[in-house]
Structures are given as C-alpha cells and as structure tokens.
C-alpha cells in the first residue's frame, strides 16, 4: 500500500498543495532510466518540477552547473556549500540559481520568480529557521544586484527582525541546537549586519537601517569557524563593516582626533587583510580578504571626503552623484570649495586627508586591475564577470573619487593662478599638471571599463557606470585638464 502512495513534487510538497499528474523518475526492471513527468502546477507556473532524478546504483548524479557557479560566488559569503544548496529545492536553492544565472548570463526569470514566491511564503508564515534566513540573505544580494530597492527593503526588514528575535547577536540564541547551521549562527548574524550597513549606504538611505546602532553585539568568534584562515577572515570582515559604518556617520563637526584615530585603525586592519589576500592564494577565505580590504579603503575615502569635501558635487556616502548639483554649478564651485582658512594646522590636516584619499583610491584601482587579470586567467566557471558580490561595484565607483579629486584640485589651483595672472600659469608646472590629470582620467576609465563588464551581471553596476561616465563628461568640459588642451596639446589623442 505504501509503495503505491501518491508522491508530490518538491514544489507542491513545500506549498502543501495537491500534486496533479506528476510522476517521479524511476528505473525499470531492465535497468533503463525513466525521466519524471512535471506536474500541472509546475507547468502552469513555469517552474522546475522538483522530482529527484532516477539513478542506477553506483551512477553519480550530474550536478547542475549553476550550482558550481554559485559555489564560486559563495566563497565571498560562505554560509552554505554546493551540497547543502541541493539538499532541497527551497528558497536557498532558487536564490542560488538566480544569482548563478546573473553571473552566467542565463535567463533567470523563472528562478527569480520562484525565489520571490518562496520568500513571500516564508515571510507570510513567519518562518524563523536558519536555512530560511540564509535564503533571504542571498535573496537580498539578488535584489540589490538587480537594483530592486523595494524588494531589498522588504526582505531586509524581515530578516533583521528574525535575527534580532532569535538573538543571533548574543552568546545564547534561541535556535535549534540540532540544526547544522546553528554552528555558524554568528556568521549568519554578521552577514545580516553587513547587508544592513551596505544597503543603507549604497542607496542614499533609501533603504533604512534595521539594526539600531546601539544594538549589543556579543558573539564569541571562536564559534564562528573552526578553520583558522576563515576565522581570521571573518574577524577582518566584521571589523571592516564596523569601521565602514562609523566612517560614514555624520559627525556634525570636523574632529581631527576622530579622523586620525579612525584612519590609523583602517590602515592597521587593511595591512592585515591585504597581506592575507596576497600571501594565501589557495585559501577559501581569499575572496573575503579582498572584499574586506576594498571596504576598508572605501571607508578611508569616505572618512576624509566627509571631513573636508562633504559638499563637493558628488554624494559619495551613498556612492552616487548629488541630484541637485548641475554640471555648470560643479564647474563654478571648482575653486571655492577648496578654500580653507590660513592656518598651519588646518593646512597640514587637509594635506594629510588629500594624500589619504589619493592613496586609498590608487590602491583600490590597483586591486581592481590585478583582480581583473587574475580572474581572466584562472576562471573555472563560465561567468560574464568575476563572481564577486554586487556591492563590489560600489567600491569600483568609490575608487574613482581620488582621480576626480585630483582633477578638481588641479583645476582650482590653475584657475586661481590665471586669476592672479602669475607667470607660472603656463609654466612647465602647468604642463605637468595636465599630465597628472590625464593619468587621473585614465584611472577613471579603468573604473568605467570594469563597471561596464559587471553591468552584464548586475543591473546596479549600470547605474554606477553611468555615474562614472557623467563624471568623465564633466572633466572633459574642464578645458586644459581634459583633452581640449592648451596650445600644443589640442591634437593629443588617447
């Protein structure tokens, strides 16, 4: 009787509805494989009917190639492995397929539709299990990559409330100890905290912070990972997230001690994460160390920009250009925004901040270039772009800030020299400034080129690429600093 009992496909079983006219794959007495038949509901909804494929004893089951692509992506957000993804066709599974489809360029509409349906079911049913939480984290990555702000806010609000309700930020969370994911509950918490910070910053606060800044965070890091390299990588990832949050906080006034202290903390930690990234190429934690380093360098740019140039035409706290400042206004503001009181301490502090922004931007661009070369030579999965998470495109945009600032400062000093009618206005130093500016323009072009590649994967990268293009267009209007040129340079083509 039990052998003839009607079975349901994974989709219908999960949705607790009757599975009609579906059939599971089987093996005949002659050993022939008979494929399963999709049920009426899956056909109607254009879903992949989740019958397990029939197999003979000893014959391996071929893995979905999309899972291998997701496994490469998950190195940067290591919450579940490929085997764990395929255990059941649930929210985690469809979020993995959607992310992998983005990277490979496949049509992901059906997988994303299923992912969103399962996410809504989980929220409606008020599910609190950790696997559902992990699925929502990856869903939020997909939401942001597609620049779907509404969906990202919806899913973030729920997953943060679940995390706080379960007490994942405490040493004694209210979770099932028999759940395998309970061993990494601290890691799950920090990934939620990280997307909460990054979504708020990268959307001009359109997505509001869900975890209060005053939330007590007391997770024993020894329980996060058993592998030393992974534990160290998460330590750097967590501290990078905390520093990014602090460096982008509006302090209300210029506090030299705060800026210098945070700058020192960033440099100390970045030296560690960068060293781990370069010195351990075979480590599973290498991707995390790269992203931590990029976040720290972006934090340094934000820290010093906000201290001195908060009103400079771009709102790089949110990785976006200010909507209220026109091109003409920006060009007119070029000189005045850099005028500071004549004070030795102020001049010295400003000089240090300018140098910090240059160094951070240059190092970010250097890492972007080396990563592009490395990924193109060693890519094991067919992707349109390296399998980094979509927040990486924010860092590529922030990397353009240093060259932009370099150009703006040179324009300001040049304009001042012309107004003063000094003999040095057209001196060799001016010519050197033009070459420095052209080098900066080339760096801006690096950001634009890599963002163009990532725009084939993430919709949000298209937005960032267009902002870099806008910046490039503004610079080209600046006359001698661009390619309009002084006498003798007008025909110079690059």
Annotation keywords:
494 residues; mainly alpha; CD2-Gal4; two-stranded antiparallel sheet; two-stranded antiparallel ribbon; 18 helices; 2% strand; disordered N terminus; disordered C terminus
Using only C-alpha atoms, the radius of gyration works out to 26 Å
Structural class, by secondary structure, is: mainly alpha
Spatial order of strands in the largest sheet: 1-2
Count of individual helical segments: 18
| H/E series | HEEHHHHHHHHHHHEEHHHHHH
Helix content: 55-70%
* N-to-C CA distance: 78 Å
Overall geometric form:
globular
CATH fold type of the domain at 1-62: CD2-Gal4
Looking at the overall shape, the CATH architecture of the domain at 1-62 is: Irregular
Poorly predicted regions? 1-5, 27-33, 52-61, 313-343, 481-494
β-sheet strand percentage: under 5%
| Overall residue-averaged pLDDT value | 78
User: What's the β-strand tally?
Assistant: 4
**Major sheet characteristics:** 2 strands, antiparallel
Kindly provide the name of the CATH class of the domain at 1-62: Few Secondary Structures
